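Incident log, structure service

09:12 report received: a user says their structure output differs between two submissions of the same chain.
09:20 pulled the input from the user's history:
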Amino acid sequence: MKTPKPTPIVILFVLFLIMSTAGVRAQQPDWGRSLRAARSAAQNGDYATALNLYKQTLASQEKALGPNHAQVAATLNNLAVLYHNQSLYSQAEPLYKRSLSIWEKIPEKESRVAAGLNNLASMCHDQGRDAEAVALYNRTLGIWQKSGHIEDSAAATAFSSLGSIYSSQHNDPLAQESYMRAVALWQKAGSSEGSDAASSYASLADIYYFQGKYSDAEPLYSRLLAIRSNSGSRENAQTIEVLTNLAQIYRSQGRYLEAEPLLASALSISEKMLGAENLAVAASVSNLAMLYNCEGKYEQADPLYKRALEIRQKNLGFDHPDVLHSMQIYAALLRQEGRKAEAQKLESQAARMPTGLTSSMTAGS
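09:34 re-ran on a clean worker, output below:
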């Protein structure tokens, strides 16, 4: 089984709020064109052009509409997002705050306030200012709750962002609650096929998995694999982890026939991504070998355990604790096969290795 990460991967959901220019007055069409051009430039990575266009538009709007108009607030926010996207937080923060101060004074702009708070929260999280981010996200969700928009997909994003913060703090109860809310909202909104929803599924499934709540983790992992298959994004490290974890659930339940194709697929993806001699490939090889071992298919497990040992020796040398662990596992299999002489030879080699070091592998891998 794959070693659990000490800190779950924090997946950040930044709401890049690009306000509609539909409300721009007909007699001032250049603003709309400028804003669309700025957005296009930013999306293409041409930040200098986007910055100039936003600044020019902002100056024109402030002159024509005054400094406290909703359109000014929208452009301030967009400019802040541009800086945020480049990790220029000191430039982004005052712009976010100024846009918020404008929207807060305009009646019936609660949704704009909530969106701006969400952007500011994501920036705080980017900077590691998680206490501020949590307060801002909760304020955002409170506004959406009051306005009846708590079931929107944007609220799901906020809940998922909260979950990632709580996960990074090892606060599994609050992380689990947040991810559960996010998953429920993605499903209700009919947006459960997107990448944001998939991240929420993965994070919640991982919490259940490491808690040993396999009956809760299994359907989430299965759903996640379906989403990634439908989107054509199966060949990545995240899919390998999902395949492996789901297979380990099946193995623990004695569902070996269901586990085998998952582990075979994880191995195939690992080899394609990383090459045949990578340490991560050794882990996938060991997982499949362990399944065959559990089934009593020693002839199939043998070459896999041997291959995993050889990969680790090549990458880590002969004195590494992970190599020692692999040797001990392979020797145990050789004894199960009745090949005592080979097992004794391997055990003798293992006995001569340094002790006292800690292996990074889990038992049986």
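09:41 both user submissions now match this output. Likely a transient worker issue. Closing.
09:42 reviewer note: Confidence is low (pLDDT under 50) at residues 1-27. Residues 234-365 form a domain with the Serine Threonine Protein Phosphatase 5, Tetratricopeptide repeat fold (CATH 1.25.40.10).
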